[in-house]
Amino acid sequence: MLMNLKTLEWDKSTLKELGIPSEILPKIVINSEIIGIVTKGWPITGIPIAGCLGDQHAAMVGQACRKGEAKSTYGTGAFILLNTGDQMINSTHGLLSTVAFKLGANAPTNYALEGSIAITGAAVQWLRDGLGLIGSASETEKLASEVESTGGVYFVPAFNRLFTPWWHDDARGVCIGITRFTNKAHIACVVLESMCFQVKDVLDSMHKDAREVESKEKFLLRVDGGATVNSLLMQIHADILGNPVVRPADIETTALRAAYAAGLAVGVWKEEEIFSSRERMKRLQILSLSFCQITSLQVLILLQNFISCITLQN
Questions:
Q1: pLDDT at site 105
Q2: What average pLDDT does the segment 220-242 reach?
Q3: pLDDT-based confidence at residue 250 (cuts at 50, 70, 90)
Q4: Is the distance from CB of 189 to CB of 147 less than 8 angstroms?
Q5: What is the pLDDT, as a whole number, of residue 299?
Q6: 56 or 295: which carries more pLDDT confidence?
Q7: What digits encode the pLDDT tens for the residues 39-51?
Q8: How far apart are the C-alpha atoms of 297 and 203, rounded to whole Å?
Q9: Per-residue model confidence (pLDDT) at position 249
Q10: Do 62 and 279 meet the contact criterion of CB atoms below 8 Å apart?
């Protein structure tokens, strides 16, 4: 929060305003350079430390996201980043600007637009621990597959707030449309759908902010993280987004890609090898569109109306 995104140095005006002396701050390093050596007393003494990436940014490298490409990582929440290349975009649609990665002293700085969702996997935990409808998270796919549609039920998982792009601290969750015929399979289904609609909200904002830098090729959403093992969830994603969803064979991409950055710094491989399209495609599973009984546009409009209602009540 104290770094100037353009200069990649500590921002002097911010430090002055907050009364923070620059000399107490650590040195800012890039993501792929030798920043130290493992010291004595460890089994791997002398090994260079050469890769340093934040969680979401490592996943972006792991998904080989070039300029105009986006990835979404799923855990308790979800985190979506769109690579905007060497152009830092100040969002007008509720997103954050960040440095995506800089893989070498002479390499260009890649920036990104970032959107955070508070509740995705946590909603499945709520089904398990709060309601007792499932015994494990893996049961949601089979359970939700037992119904052909949500039966007119809709769910907004604003358990304590809504993050990107709404930023409503006072929002709370709502589940409506329940009838006598609603069962736990419908509830499981709408919980999965709620993740997808939240991601679509973020991606819609990204498309508006980044029209000029987006790839001219067909938009693909690259996904990783624990929830992506749920193939039904990924298929609902593809249907609602209207775009293919790309899932890697290794869904836990973060640590491996920090190692990639380290290998790049010491000459094990080159940047073009990390971002090789041919190598990427060997490790991907692409989920294309299927037909839904309820159009995604209808459901999206309803979700947005519900969020608006939450705001108006305040």
A1: 87
A2: 92
A3: confident
A4: yes
A5: 38
A6: 56
A7: 998 888 999 999 9
A8: 14
A9: 78
A10: no
Which residue reads 């300029």 in tokens? 67
- Which two three-digit tokens encode residue 101? 């990665």
Average pLDDT, the chain: 86
Name the amino acid, one letter, at 139: E
3-state secondary structure labels for all residues of the chain: CCEECCCCEECHHHHHHHCCCHHHCCCCCCCEEEEEECCCCCCCCCCEEEECCCHHHHHHHHCCCCCCCEEEEECCCEEEEEEEECCCCCCCCCCEEEEEECCCCCCCCEEEEEEEECCCHHHHHHHHHHCCCCCCCCHHHHHHCCCCCCCCCEEECCCCCECCCCCECCCCCEEECCCCCCCHHHHHHHHHHHHHHHHHHHHHHHHHHCCCCCCCCCCCEEEEEHHHHCHHHHHHHHHHHCCCEEEECCCCCHHHHHHHHHHHHCCCCCHHHHCCHHHHHHCEEEECCCCCCCCHHHHHHHHHHHHHHHHHHC
